[in-house]
Automatic annotation (TrEMBL):
The keyword Ubl conjugation is annotated on this UniProt entry: no
Species name: Microbacterium dauci
Keyword set, alphabetical order: Membrane, Transmembrane, Transmembrane helix
Keyword Transcription: no
Residues passing through the membrane, by range: 20-49, 61-82, 109-135, 147-163, 170-187, 199-223, 322-341, 361-383, 395-412, 418-447, 468-491
Descriptive protein name: Tripartite tricarboxylate transporter permease
InterPro entries in the cross-refs: DUF112_TM
Length: 502
């Protein structure tokens, strides 16, 4: 098979000493940021995006692949040890994981999570490699109207799913569009929302937006909640993280069930891995009730850790397929990866495999290598990573602020970028305060210009006929799927409200 040959060629590139070093550095940095409370994988990519500017594209993306999965590996550590998940994707893992930690099995919970992340990621990445040609062929059927429909699907689906309120999700989407529209219009050459300032003619860099929104916004949010003398209850991991034969027999089916939930959700824009992780956890909870498992919900069950963790990384793996083949980011972290591509003048999609195959296949190969490296540094050294949680928060977030400022300034050596990042950080702080989700802002800021361009091209070709936007089977299918997602999301929100009023 051609993809196997191409993948082996990619391994030859990824196995060079220089690229292996990038993989290890990325894995360590990604895990370190992911472990820290409140940061997570999206923050890891955003914070470390400026670090790769001096690297060649292949080395940079190999490092990013490792950072991407490293952040996901680290997300669950905080949840298990502190009952404070590093990211929303680790919430479901936290339920049983923290119970295991309180029962003296923290190391076992961390080991189960690391192996689950490895298995889920490996299966999903393997499927991406084998189905990549079919994804590319599907993407070739897309014209301007189809790409616009795909972008609308991403905008509305993510806004409806990730927010407690659909209105809050749409507000976040509007903020993202407002940031994306600043600058010179590429098709007409007109200035938009620049207020006459030459600094804004090129628009607001996605690095400034992401670092301001995620890093500086989080720092301001944490600073507003820090109380002197307060400290979380930290449960140090004891014992062995390795699973016995009997434990393997228990968790292997859970790993496979979690992966089965995660793979399809990674390819559709429904807010990332929150939905599949909760579905996987709910399935294990129902099965535990049938088995009359006394550990589940009391002292903690390894199945309740295994399934959601495998689902989360399987979602991330298949999200890479949608990202590379369709140019569609299905989560905030995937959106950050698109930002990385755009920094090098590349647009993910079907042409990426044809024009930049020498970059894509080493990137896919590095996903496999990165997962192996991450398993090696997470499984036996979980206790060492846990020590990061002992860093006083005021030192930790001061360091994050310095790194964020240096990264933004290195982008263009302009103080204006620093002021914009600070302003966007204040917006990010206000969004956290009012429970407005961040993911729709990133999706809109990154996909907004593409959606606008494709809409205008479709209308130009059809001489202003709006009917062209729903004239093909693909666009009709996408809008019907979008309607189903929105209705499902509204039903879930209404059910949640009715339960809250009981």
């Amino acid at each position: 098979m051609d993809q196997l040959t191409l993948l082996l060629e990619g391994f030859a590139v990824a196995f060079t000493p220089q690229n292996l070093l990038f993989l290890v550095i990325g894995a360590i940095l990604g895990t370190a940021v992911g472990v820290l409370p409140g940061l997570g994988s999206a923050m890891a990519v955003a914070l470390l995006l400026p670090v790769t500017f001096s690297l060649d594209p292949t080395g940079a993306f190999i490092m990013f692949a490792s950072i991407y999965f490293g952040g996901l590996f680290g997300d669950s550590t905080t949840g298990i040890l502190l009952n404070t998940p590093g990211n929303s994707s680790a919430i479901a893992t936290t339920f049983e994981g923290h119970r295991m930690a309180k029962d003296g099995r923290a190391a076992k919970a961390l080991g189960t999570a690391a192996i689950g992340a490895f298995i889920g990621g490996m299966i999903a990445c393997s499927l991406v490699v084998f189905f990549a040609p079919y994804i590319v062929e599907l993407a070739k059927l897309f014209g301007p109207a189809e790409y616009f429909a795909l972008a609308v699907f991403a905008f509305v689906a993510i806004s409806a799913v990730v927010a407690d309120s659909v209105v809050r999700g749409l507000v976040a989407l509007g903020i993202g569009f407002a940031l994306a529209l600043v600058g010179i219009d590429g098709m007409s050459g007109a200035e938009r929302f620049t207020f006459g300032s030459p600094v804004l003619f090129d628009g607001i860099s996605i690095v400034v937006i992401t670092v301001g929104l995620l890093a500086i916004g989080e720092v301001l949010h944490v600073a507003s909640h820090i109380r002197s003398g307060g400290r979380e209850s930290f449960l140090a991991p004891h014992g062995t993280p390795f699973l016995s034969k009997s434990e393997w027999r228990q968790v292997l089916p859970a790993y496979l069930r979690g992966t089965a939930f995660g793979v399809p959700f990674g390819a559709i824009p429904v807010g990332g891995s929150e939905v599949p992780t909760f579905l996987a956890y709910g399935t294990e909870k129902r099965l535990a009730a049938r088995r009359r498992d006394a550990e589940f919900g009391t002292v903690g069950s390894i199945r309740g850790v295994a399934a959601p963790e495998a689902a989360g990384n399987a979602t991330a793996g298949s999200a890479m397929g949608a990202l590379l083949g369709l140019g569609l980011p299905t989560s905030a972290t995937a959106a950050m990866m698109i930002a990385a591509f755009q920094q090098y003048g590349m647009q993910p999609g079907p042409l990426l495999f044809e024009r930049s195959g020498d970059l894509v296949w080493p990137l896919l190969a590095s996903l496999f290598l990165g997962l192996v490296i991450l398993l090696i540094i997470n499984l036996p050294f979980a206790a060492i990573w846990a020590k990061l949680l002992l860093i006083p928060r005021h030192y930790l977030y001061a360091t994050i602020t310095v790194l964020a400022v240096l990264g933004v300034y290195a982008l263009g050596s302009r103080t204006a970028d620093l002021w914009m990042a600070l302003g966007i950080g204040v917006v990010g702080f206000a969004m956290r305060y009012y429970s407005i989700p961040l993911a729709p802002v990133l999706i809109a800021a990154i996909l907004g210009p593409m959606a606008e361009t494709q809409l205008r091209r479709a209308l130009a070709v059809s001489e202003g006929d709006v009917g062209t936007l729903v004239a093909s089977p693909l666009t009709i299918t996408l809008y019907l799927l979008l309607a189903v997602v929105v209705v499902f999301s509204l039903v879930q929100h209404l059910r949640g409200r009715s339960r809250a009023h009981r």
